Amino acid sequence: MIQPAKSTRERLLHAVLYEACAMLILVPLGSWLLGHGPAQMGVLAIMLSTIAMSWNMLFGALFEHLERRFGWQRTVRVRTLHAVLFEGGLVVICVPLVAWWMGVSYWQALLLDIGILLFFLPYTYLFNWVYDHARLRLKTA
């Protein structure tokens, strides 16, 4: 199925929903797993979320442009490419921030980011699948 283009308003709604749902899961989980307080994890989550929302909107627009240009449909392969490229870009952007905020080496920040990535790869795929299906149902209702 080829998705109709999203407006800027819808793109913003998509990004906010994506990040809010992720933070509701990750802040308590990260605090528990890493032994840092919820405040430190919460601030880090807000910083990463702000970066991720901006990246989500920019990357989403670029990827959807490619979808329309090449007539791609959202198959498993295209969704996987989307998720991998999106998360790969975030790794490059976020590792230095995580190292600074957590007071760890780049290597430790990369390992932490890999852990976050292992959460977000399936989360990104599933969230967007649910969102796309809900969007189509609302558009045809």
* Helical content band: over 70%
The structure class reads mainly alpha
Number of strands: 0
The ordered H/E elements are HHHH
Mean of all residue-level pLDDT scores: 88
Oligomer: single chain
Count of domain modules: 1
Rg (CA only)? 16 Å
Number of helices: 4
**Span from first to last CA?**
17 Å
> Stretches where pLDDT falls below 50 for ≥5 residues?
none
Shape: elongated
Biggest sheet features: none
Approximate strand percentage = under 5%
Brief descriptors of the model:
141 residues, mainly alpha
Structure explained in plain terms:
The chain has 141 residues and is an all-alpha fold. It has one domain. It is 87% helix and 0% strand. It has four helices and no strands. Helix 1 (8-34) packs antiparallel against helix 2 (38-70), helix 2 (38-70) packs antiparallel against helix 3 and helix 3 (76-102) packs across helix 4. The two termini are 17 Å apart. The model has no long low-confidence stretch (mean pLDDT 88).
Summarize this structure briefly.
With 141 residues, this protein is an all-alpha fold. The chain contains 4 helices and no strands.
List the helices and strands and how they pair.
Blueprint: H1 8-34, H2 38-70, H3 76-102, H4 106-140
Helix pairs in contact: 1-2, 2-3, 3-4
